[in-house]
Amino acid sequence: DGELCLSRSLVNSSDKIIRKSGSSVFQHSLEGWKINSSLVLEIRKNILRFLDAERDVSVVKSSFKPGDVIHYVLDRRRTLNISQDLHSLLPEVSPMKNRRFKTCAVVGNSGILLDSECGKEIDSHNFVIRCNLAPVVEFAADVGTKSDFITMNPSVVQRAFGGFRNESDREKFVHRLSMLNDSVLWIPAFMVKGGEKHVEWVNALILKNKLKVRTAYPSLRLIHAVRGYWLTNKVPIKRPSTGLLMYTLATRFCDEIHLYGFWPFPKDLNGKAVKYHYYDDLKYRYFSNASPHRMPLEFKTLNVLHNRGALKLTTGKCI
Ligand code: CTP
């Protein structure tokens, strides 16, 4: 059984834990890595019992009408109104319908990407998924530029675009989106209250500037289903990180998944400091209970999957 298979491997895994400068990290090797296609198929099948990424990647127009009131997924007491703008940006059909790829890259945002020279390799994949509108142009040699699917937590408006307080922030945002052409822009708008005005501003800018991006808003059940899958496999994640969500979705569309920029540790294997994000000065907060994520546990899990050939995790240089 695939489920047992994964949990047993988590217990028996031969991962080597190296303690360096107080941080535990997991070593893995790229040498001799080979895809395990039957495991890939088994994982896809098991995830399909919990969610169908083709459907759950986005709600569609026919799910709602303007004026509908929905409950936030992670804060059921609070509600959100489906505005006219939001409704007009919901896709008619899933933007991932019938899309299949031989190889995909899921690019996390860790500073481990700096000096990796992975840009070319990342861009060589058939489908490239990125997180939180991370900048690419200035970092192209290390992270590449191709973006077929990119996520945007509502908090990004505040964090990276000054809360749209002035015209230049808005211009910067519109410019960033125009570079995406018709890629999928995935906005988790229904998770928790707080970001609704940011989502509304984003929607208004997309409409006003007639941007070609294909907006997607994850289904109301996605996050619970993803959590359910990992919990069943003995990976108790409070709230999956965007990167883990993207890997979980990608199993539906991609035969070979390559992960880059996943390294939730402040030091690398040689003890050298690693920035939390490759592009800003955000600090590590995932070791405190205040954080909703359990990235080190997620990383450990992804590492086991790497060692079993289910995915390929690159944390060093691409040569
Ligand atoms: N990531 C990682 N190590 C880091 C930073 C990020 O492994 N040092 C991975 C995580 O899977 C993360 C993804 O890269 O989800 C994208 O990073 P970020 O934009 O910071 O992710 P979020 O999960 O959206 O973070 P938050 O909820 O804090 O906004």
Description:
This protein has 12 helices and 11 strands. The protein is globular, with a radius of gyration of 19 Å. The chain has a 7-stranded parallel β-sheet. Strands 1-2 form a two-stranded antiparallel ribbon. The chain has helices at 2-12, 37-48, 53-56, 84-89, 119-123, 140-143, 156-161, 167-178, 196-208, 222-232, 242-250, 295-307; strands at residues 16-20, 23-27, 69-72, 75-81, 101-107, 127-130, 149-151, 184-186, 214-216, 254-260, 312-314. It starts with a helix and ends in a 5-residue tail after the last strand. The longest helix has 13 residues, at 196-208. The protein is an alpha/beta fold and 319 residues long. Bound molecules: cytidine-5'-triphosphate (CTP). Cytidine-5'-triphosphate (CTP) binds at residues 108-110, 131-132, 153, 155, 241-244, 261-264, 276-277, 293, 295.
Which features does this protein show?
alpha/beta, two-stranded antiparallel ribbon, about 325 residues, 12 helices, binds cytidine-5'-triphosphate, seven-stranded parallel β-sheet, 11 strands
Bound molecules: cytidine-5'-triphosphate
| Biggest β-sheet: strands ordered side by side in the sheet | 9-8-7-6-5-10-11
Oligomer: single chain
> Could you tell me how far the N terminus lies from the C terminus, measured between alpha carbons in angstroms?
37 Å
Rg computed from alpha carbons, rounded to a whole number of angstroms: 19 Å
The total count of strands amounts to: 11
Helix content percent band: 25-40%
Mean residue pLDDT: 91
Strand content: 15-25%
Detail the poorly predicted runs. Answer: 7-24
Q: Give the overall form.
A: globular
Structural class: alpha/beta
Give the helices and strands as they follow along the chain.
HEEHHEEHEHEHEHHEHEHHEHE
Largest sheet: 7 strands, parallel
Total number of helices = 12
